[in-house]
Design brief:
Number of domains: 1
CATH architecture: Alpha-Beta Barrel
Order of helices and strands: EHEHEHEHHEHEHEEEHE
Strand order of the largest sheet: 1-2-3-4-5-6-9
Largest sheet: 7 strands, parallel, barrel
Length: 254
């Protein structure tokens, strides 16, 4: 049986308990990355999103960010590795409190936005993230880009790593995501998203924006929950993966 995880960034609103499209998206996921308060999410939102994931049997992950609520965690911050380590521990601890109170266990960690992008290339930041996970709970899984500094740090430290690929973002020739500031960075058409996922899962490459085949393998597929086409993309992808024989689950060995 072929298996793959589908993850989504959720609980990212702030100052309210009702969370956008989360109610519709959650039943189609196998894992959810829940904002921990630094770019989105407040106590009521975190509580509600954890309970929503629990009600659908979805694995719960922490989605820590730079401390950048005003910029939604998408602005670079010049933090030291120690500061990143501390921010990671703080946010994982906050979410873990709600998860434990619900009788569940934290499953994974996926950094958000600018922190995620910086740690793809910056070895010291990647090591700070991995060390924070290791000392918090060495059995957690790190979600990150294949071939990144985060993957190398995870393997070196002994942290399990899920190679994350994107259904709704385009790629550059070097395997990096197309910056959101550039046109064509997002995939809004379901057929294009499915084509990209098929290329990665079945053929081992992604096609870059300039038409090159970039070698790539994935364990988990991300769709952004705040996108206007998220529900349509996720429902189409979920149905397609089932049709071609994939079991959608977060519970397998990387």
């Amino acid at each position: 049986m072929k298996v793959v995880d589908i993850n989504c960034d959720l609980g990212e609103s702030y100052g309210q308990a009702v969370v956008g499209q989360d109610d519709v998206l959650m039943p189609m996921l196998s894992s959810a990355n829940i904002a921990c308060g630094f770019h989105g999410g407040d106590p009521a939102t975190i509580h509600r999103t954890v309970r929503l994931a629990q009600s659908h049997g979805v694995s719960i992950g922490a989605h820590p960010s730079y401390p950048d609520l005003a910029g939604f965690g998408r602005r670079h911050m010049d933090l030291t590795p120690q500061e990143v380590y501390d921010c990671m521990l703080y946010q994982m601890g906050a979410l873990s409190g709600f998860v434990r109170a619900a009788g569940e266990s934290l499953h994974h960690v996926k950094p958000h936005g600018a922190l995620y992008n910086a740690a793809c290339r910056n070895v010291e930041l990647a090591e700070a993230i991995v060390n924070a996970i290791f000392y918090f709970d060495k059995y957690l899984i790190l979600y990150g880009p294949p071939g990144s500094a985060m993957e190398a740090a995870a393997h070196q430290t002994g942290i399990r790593f899920f190679r994350e690929v994107f259904a709704d973002r385009t790629y550059q020739a070097d395997g990096s995501l197309t910056p959101r500031s550039q046109s064509g960075s997002m995939i809004n058409d379901s057929s294009e998203a499915i084509r990209q996922v098929d290329d990665i899962l079945l053929r081992g490459y992604a096609v870059s924006v300039d038409g090159r085949q970039v070698p790539m393998r994935g364990d988990t597929i991300c769709i952004h929950g705040d996108g206007p086409h998220a529900v349509e993309l996720l429902s189409s992808l979920h149905r397609h993966l089932n049709d071609i024989g994939f079991e959608i689950t977060s519970l397998y060995a990387s």
